[in-house]
From TrEMBL:
This protein's record includes keyword Ion transport: no
InterPro entries: Cyt_c-like_dom, Cyt_c-like_dom_sf, Cytochrome_c_Peroxidase/MauG, Di-haem_cyt_c_peroxidsae, Imelysin_sf
Organism of this sequence: Chitinophaga caseinilytica
Keyword annotations from UniProtKB, A to Z: Heme, Iron, Metal-binding, Oxidoreductase, Peroxidase, Signal
Domain of life: Bacteria
Gene Ontology molecular-function annotations: cytochrome-c peroxidase activity
Stated name of the protein: Cytochrome c peroxidase
Keyword Disulfide bond set for record: no
Intracellular or extracellular location(s): Cell envelope
Chief location of this protein within or outside the cell: other
Length: 586
């Protein structure tokens, strides 16, 4: 906390200098926010310059790591701003230490930022450190430029503060951006301090501001021993709800944009917090009760297949959380299995890529792909539209669901209807959801399992709360894939030959990469992995515990799963499975 107090004192001193230079106190909310940001940016720049000088002088690893952590703390004071107002620059400041892949253009760009600096420090690699710090320093210039050129209003600043709380819940506390130094819990205090400061500037009452002090003070301890379950349920979520509730009754204006999270949501686990419409790319595809009902009929209709004997529900069985219980289903022709395991379509509407290889950017594209796949449905959206046009009842339902469609049932409306139904499959009704909302309880084993999930096992650094998939809150603008090194069988030391995303985007980082799927309802969706080779959750946990393919000595240079053993105890593994079972919707 000492560094935080120092930063606030520097901020106040900066304001005093500004007021003296200008001859008067900045009067507008916009000016006060900008002054604060510029002072904080200067602090970050000074700490970065100091780190660079130390690196060039060849100082000790311990001294360099301490200076680096000072830089991270200074950045965390600014993160609410960079992530909300300058997301492109934010990725350069604190993005993952992996090449950024542009799939549409089939190209990569080198990683940059604090996480790259961290890789050069834990352990120390002197030849990499100074270039990484220089690259980070260059991005601070762009951040300062954004601060100077942005007009700040109360609605967007509050929304940015709320997003900072959600980012802390989804990414920060898990240590997602501090995988080596493991500073997620310590840095939570910086995030909470910055949000408290913003809330004070907006005019929040002292009673609310004092709650920040309690929640900040309890963010302490090792990630391997921290009570994440208790902290989320009794500290962090109640505070973010109190923030949102106060703002919504205070008379302040709301943002007008369609954002992923509902303005009334106080936590990521609130019912209806995530808006399905945010993930829709065409206005006429936004789900309505009529579209959902129509899509449900189509989803269960075997006439969708060219042979007239297979529906979507044939492979996505509601009783099995919309999977089929098979390692791999069989081709429509019979005999040969299809290429991959059948994934659940529950919560599929809340991600930015479909299929294990993410080849379809939208659910509508996924529906089209499945319909025309000769091994799955051997039909097309056009064929389905033709027989619907000949059915007066179905035709009337389409007119009611899509008043704008005119005289003909077009293929895109077929895809939109089925996609609307899939987007409705997001109940958020598991025991764990109720616990996080304060509406229910989970057992001690499940609580311990969640703590392992967030801490020692590091599961939440890829399976992000609240969706437990690769779509990160609070922006929800991208869905990640990982190279795990999946084996042909848990008992065979041989890498599965499916090259994953590389088939469609032939870039080396995507070789054997697969989308990070949701863990919700995972107790019902066995067998697991893209090849369906893992029959139980215990086998999956053992796979991660040993560090994937690289962890057992198979050469896989681009594996993103750390190869080091997690060293989970039998009890921790058991508790982790019990927690995963608590994600089953009722």
């Amino acid at each position: 906390m000492k560094q935080s107090v120092t930063l606030i004192l520097a901020l106040c001193a900066g304001w005093m200098i500004c007021w003296a230079a200008c001859g008067r106190k900045p009067e507008t909310f916009d000016a006060r926010i900008r002054t604060m940001l510029l002072v904080q940016t200067d602090t970050l720049q000074r700490r970065t310059d100091s780190l660079l000088a130390m690196a060039e002088r060849g100082e000790s690893e311990t001294a360099l790591q301490a200076a680096f952590l000072d830089c991270r703390r200074a950045y965390k004071q600014l993160e609410w701003f960079s992530e909300y107002y300058a997301p492109g620059t934010s990725r350069l400041l604190n993005g993952p230490p992996l090449p950024e892949v542009e799939t549409e253009e089939t190209k990569m760009s080198d990683p940059a930022g604090l996480q790259v600096v961290e890789e050069a420090l834990y352990p120390l690699e002197r030849e990499s450190l100074a270039p990484a710090v220089r690259s980070f320093a260059a991005s601070i210039i762009a951040l300062r430029r954004t601060a100077n050129n942005t007009l700040f209003d109360t609605a967007h600043v509050f929304d940015a503060a709320r997003m900072a709380m959600f980012r802390l819940a989804a990414l920060g506390l898990s240590g997602f951006d501090t995988p080596l130094s493991r500073q997620g819990i310590a840095e939570a205090r910086e995030t909470l301090l910055s949000v408290k400061f913003l809330m004070g500037m907006i005019g929040a009452p002292d009673t609310l501001l004092r709650r920040f002090e309690t929640v900040t003070a309890t963010a302490t301890g090792s990630p391997d021993a921290f009570d994440f379950a208790g902290y989320y349920a009794t500290q962090l979520h109640p505070l973010s709800r109190a923030m949102t509730n106060w703002y919504n009754v205070s008379g302040h204006t709301q943002v007008k944009e369609l954002l992923a999270i509902d303005p009334l949501a106080g936590s990521l686990f609130d019912s209806g917090a995530i808006r399905a419409a945010f993930f829709v790319h065409q206005p006429d595809a936004i789900p309505t009760p009529e579209k959902i009902a129509l899509g449900k009929l189509l989803f269960h209709d075997p006439k969708l297949a060219g042979t007239g004997n297979r529906s979507c529900a044939s492979c996505h069985n509601p009783e099995k959380a919309f999977t089929d219980g098979l390692a791999r289903n069989v081709s429509l022709h019979g005999g040969m299995p299809i290429a991959r395991n059948t994934p659940t379509v529950m919560y599929a509407g809340l991600q930015q890529g479909q299929f294990y290889d993410m080849r379809s950017p939208t659910l509508e594209n996924q529906v089209m792909d499945v319909l025309q796949n000769p091994h799955e449905m051997r039909s097309s959206a056009a064929n389905v539209a033709q027989w619907i046009s000949r059915d007066p009842v179905m035709r009337r339902m389409f007119v009611q669901a899509f008043p704008e469609m005119g005289d003909s049932v077009r293929p895109r409306f077929v895809m939109a209807a089925i996609a609307a139904y899939i987007r409705s499959l997001q109940p958020f009704s598991s025991p764990f959801d109720a616990f996080m909302r304060g509406d229910g309880e989970i057992g001690e084993e499940e609580r311990r399992g969640f703590n392992v999930f967030m801490g020692k096992a590091k599961c939440a650094t890829c399976h992000f709360l609240p969706l437990f998939n690769g779509t990160a809150a609070p922006a929800f603008t991208s869905t990640e894939s990982e190279v795990l090194g999946v084996l042909t069988s848990p008992n065979i030391r041989r890498l599965d030959g499916d090259s994953g995303r590389y088939v469609h985007v032939p870039l080396e980082p995507l070789l054997f990469a697969f989308k990070t799927p949701t863990l919700r309802n995972i107790a019902k969706t066995a067998p697991y992995m893209h090849n369906g080779a893992y029959r139980t959750l215990a086998e999956v946990v053992d796979f991660y515990d040993t560090g994937g393919a690289a962890g057992i000595g198979i050469s896989l240079p681009n594996q993103t799963l750390p190869p080091d053993s997690l060293r989970l105890t039998p009890l921790e593994k058991q508790d982790l499975v019990r927690f995963l079972e608590s994600l089953t919707d009722r």
